């Protein structure tokens, strides 16, 4: 890969990761007290812990929303792949590769969310962060 292609990929990544950052709308004390709850929101089913245990924290609620959307997307995609696999076993290799790529993408988004939460930032995840389930 030459330098132009590498710069182009970096620019695309930066553009994709250029999402809304609402950290300044959150109370710094709330952020410090609820970082652990915010991190838990990105660990699959553990999203239920901050959903019920940190209802009053605006910061934890922000990250719980992000983690909940990520979890729901993962579950929906899993079931879509299972249905497609049940319809045609001939697609197994292609679906397996595609599912692996999707799982890696979800893992990357979860890592981005965990890093943002650990740093005390309320920054939307790329691709799915603009959607709201929780208010």
Which key phrases capture this entry?
mainly alpha, single chain, 135 residues
Shape category: flat
What's the rounded overall pLDDT mean? 89
Quaternary structure = single chain
Number of strands: 0
User: In what range is the share of β-strand residues?
Assistant: under 5%
Q: Note poorly predicted spans.
A: none
Content-based structural category: mainly alpha
Radius of gyration: 17 Å
The SSE order reads HHHHHH
**End-to-end span in angstroms?**
44 Å
Kindly state the percentage of residues in helix.
Answer: 55-70%
What does this structure look like?
The chain is an all-alpha fold and 135 residues long. The chain is 66% helix and 0% strand. It has six helices and no strands. Helix 5 runs antiparallel to helix 6. The protein is flat. The model has no long low-confidence stretch (mean pLDDT 89).
In short:
The chain has 135 residues and is mainly α. Helix content is 66%, strand content 0%.
Strand and helix layout:
Layout: H1 3-16, H2 28-33, H3 35-40, H4 48-53, H5 58-87, H6 92-118
Helix pairs in contact: 5-6
């Amino acid at each position: 890969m030459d330098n132009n292609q590498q710069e182009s990929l970096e620019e695309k990544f930066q553009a994709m990761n250029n999402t809304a950052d609402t950290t300044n709308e959150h109370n710094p004390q709330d952020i410090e007290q609820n970082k652990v709850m915010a991190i838990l929101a990105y660990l699959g089913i553990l999203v239920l812990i901050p959903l019920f245990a940190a209802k009053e924290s605006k910061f934890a609620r922000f990250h719980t929303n992000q983690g909940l959307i990520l979890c729901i997307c993962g579950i929906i995609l899993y079931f879509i792949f299972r249905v497609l696999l049940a319809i045609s076993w001939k697609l197994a290799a292609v679906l397996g590769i595609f599912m692996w790529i999707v799982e890696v993408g979800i893992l990357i988004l979860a890592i981005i969310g965990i890093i943002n939460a650990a740093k005390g930032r309320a920054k939307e995840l790329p691709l799915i962060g603009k959607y709201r389930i929780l208010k």
